[in-house]
Amino acid sequence: MSESTELSDDLERPAAPRQLVLALDHAISYAREDFLEGPSNATALALIERWPDWPSRLIALIGPEGSGKSHLAAIWAELSGARVISARHLTDIDLPSAFATGALVVEDIDTPELDERALFHLINLAREEGADVLFTARTSPPSLTVGIRDLQSRLRMLPVVELEVPDDALLRALIVKLAADRQLPVDEAVVNYLANRIERSFLGAHRAVARLDEEGLRRHRPVTRALAAELFRAT
What pLDDT shows up at residue 234? Predict the structure, then answer.
């Protein structure tokens, strides 16, 4: 068969369809023993574990997406018996009953869907009840712009503890944990390659491991350093 015939056959042959990979939920443990400790979260973890010896009954825990805010909040909820609610759903709950245990977690108070009056009422009620409240957010609450002046004042009074950028050791440990959560075998070469190429953040690690997992499944290939290099060489 001539080279031109082979070329013609290749042009006529339909391209192999791109395999779709279903987005499956992966089990994430929020148990204390599964929390990865490091310099970036040591202050926040110490605060959670020293409860009820807090400097204030109302505390704000801030950090970027995927930095461990929800994990720390879950650890504290287990310690304190706190109920966990989302700030976007404040208008859907009965606030007095939310303080039944004397402790409450309010996640993502910097959401655009926040009802300012509901948050203002919650803070006032928490003070009246002498309840402990842990707020989480990506942005420091004192810097949030809100329309209710008294709410702005109360947010500025909140003590803030911040989750910082992970150091090298914590980033590597996080990659290993995220891979284990997905039952994805990775060796030291893959972990080292990712740690040196991806964005040095919790979100960067989450995205990198998810991409490796999805591409490995789609291509029917094991997750190796070679695959990681194909995907992250330019990052």
Answer: 59
| CATH number of the domain bearing residue 217 | 1.10.8.60
Check residue 53 and give its pLDDT.
96
Is the pLDDT reported for residue 17 higher than 80?
A: no
Do 227 and 215 touch, CB atoms closer than 8 A? yes
Number of domains forming the structure of the chain: 2
Question: Sorting pLDDT into bands at 50, 70 and 90, what band is 8?
Answer: very low
What span, in angstroms and rounded, lies between the C-alpha atoms of 205 and 15? 33
Residue-wise pLDDT tens digits, 115-165: 999 999 999 999 999 999 999 999 999 999 999 999 999 999 999 999 998
- Where are any strands of DSSP class E within the chain? 58-62, 83-86, 103-107, 132-137, 160-162
Long-range contacts of 32-35 (CB under 8 A, 24+ apart): 32/75, 32/78, 34/71, 34/177, 35/68, 35/71, 35/72, 35/75
Does residue 110 lie in a domain region? yes
- In the DSSP assignment, the letter for residue 68 is S
Q: Mark whether 40 and 145 lie in a shared domain.
A: yes
- 184: DSSP letter: -
Entry pTM? 0.81
How far is 209 from 211, CA to CA, in rounded Å? Answer: 5
| Same domain assignment for residues 157 and 170 | no
Residues 41 and 155 in one domain: yes
